[in-house]
Amino acid sequence: MRRYFTFLLLVSICFMAKAGNIDDKLPIRGFAIEAPSHRGVDQFLRFINQDLAPAKVNLLILRVDWNFAYKTHPELSDENPLTQDDVDKLVAACKEHGIRLVPQVNLLGHQSWAKQTHALLREYPQFDETPSIKTEDYTKWPNPYGLYCKSYCPLHPDVHKVVFDVVDEICDAFQADAFHAGMDEVFYIGMDECPRCHGKDRSELFAGEVTTIHDHLASKGRELMIWGDRLLDGRTTGLGEWEASYNDTWRAIDMIPKDILICDWHYERADLSAVYFAMKGLPVATCGYRDPDLSVQQVKDMIQFRSQTTRETKGYLRGYIHTIWSSAGGFLRGYYGDYGNRPPRPDQPRRPDTSIQSAKSVLTFFKQLAEEE
Ligand SMILES: [Zn+2]
Prior knowledge:
single chain, alpha/beta, TIM Barrel, 10 strands, globular, binds zinc ion
């Protein structure tokens, strides 16, 4: 009998220890940033080893886009891109610290920025959803064409051949079991001038493209991650047309596979929309950015949601991913206060970049969580 009670006591202690475990409080502790440049790899390795690993970050999403020496489509690679050797170093560092490394290439939207058309539509202009709109004409937002970023046409018969070559190659290069497809801020979808998409339901078009990418990855045992904004109704929620959708794509939330990680970004307020995704049965991570207090609040909210819900819903509320939207090199120079021999110009004093402080605050908070165990 005494042995039985001792056993029960041990079970309870184990259970209590587990309940306080950082992986239970916040299973995903992520960081999403542009991939380093070829020259910036060593500095980025320092960041992984000295900052991300001690903070118990366990997911690193790197926006690679065309910054890789693609063998399947060399015409799409940037100048002086990351090599396989560079990527091998990043993979090794992440493996050593138990960090899941996930490459990102922006699919569907974000195929241009201001006056610059990115590689896919530059090399394959036939994939352009709005060929009549010229990026060279971009002035500023708003503009008469509604041009923010270009999209590819999800119904072009040849687009996935090229896109999936790239997706497969970058996932192989990163030895990745997941891929982040971006898919945020897609303003051009189902446009009148597109002979294939014209008149079609935009939620169905968006969900169709998400599902096509999901199914391709799933056939190779890989998981899909996307930003969540197109799945939120911007008008009803008041979230607007950037962090949510004004262009009738939000009904896609009920049309996509349920094993896609939704990265639910909000940078102005600590919105509670993660709960909405979770209650739809979609795994979700809240994403913050440049406000230190808000970002830490978003982490705390996720921990709170998980502690106050059913076992089922808790399973969908996966964690928090901190995002950085400057270049990796610029961010790390600020992070380490390392501007080399380039002092600030007297007429342009360096303004404090709150995204650096915000990243430091979140990493410190993760560390504290781990120490509470
Ligand atoms: Zn189209």
